Structures are given as C-alpha cells and as structure tokens.
Amino acid sequence: MKKAVSRLFQLRKALDECEQELGLSNFSEVERAVYSYVSASENSSVTITSIKNDPYFAKYSLSTIKRAVLFLTSNRIISADQSSEDRREMILTLQQ
Fold this sequence. Notes:
- The chain is mainly alpha-helical.
- Helices cover 53% and strands 10% of the residues.
- The longest helix is centred in the first third of the chain and has 20 residues, at 2-21.
- The relative contact order is 0.14.
C-alpha cells in the first residue's frame, strides 16, 4: 500500500511539472482537465456535451464545465466554432 501511495505522489508531481511547463499552473483543476481533453482528443468534434458525457467529468456539473470553457475561450486558449451539422453545438478546438 505504501508503495502505491508513493507512486501516486510521484505521478502527481510529474503532472504538476508538466502543467507548469505548459503554463497551466494558474488554471483551476477543471480548466486544466477541459484543456487536456480538447487538446488530446482524437475526435474532431469536441463539444461541451462530449466533455460532460466523458466518465472523468461526471464529478463536475454542467455549469462548472461551461465556466471552464468560457474561461478558456475568453483567454483565446481554445476556440468555439458553430457546428455545420447542428447549429446549437459549438465545436471546441485548441488555438494554434
């Protein structure tokens, strides 16, 4: 058990170092999670709904996810473009 807890702490330290390198250290936990989801997604149609439906985000409310997306879009970290298939949806992509 102690070895597993030690390994968990090592992983947390490594994650923290990576987030600092990417400039994410001032973001909230949910903002970092949404950023990671959008940037790592192989699915080109990332939406707030797809984020909310991911099991990792089950612990967050829809309004919390929306606030994180608003923060990231207003700071030009991700962009939100209207879907051509469903005009109610916004496709989230990483800003280049």
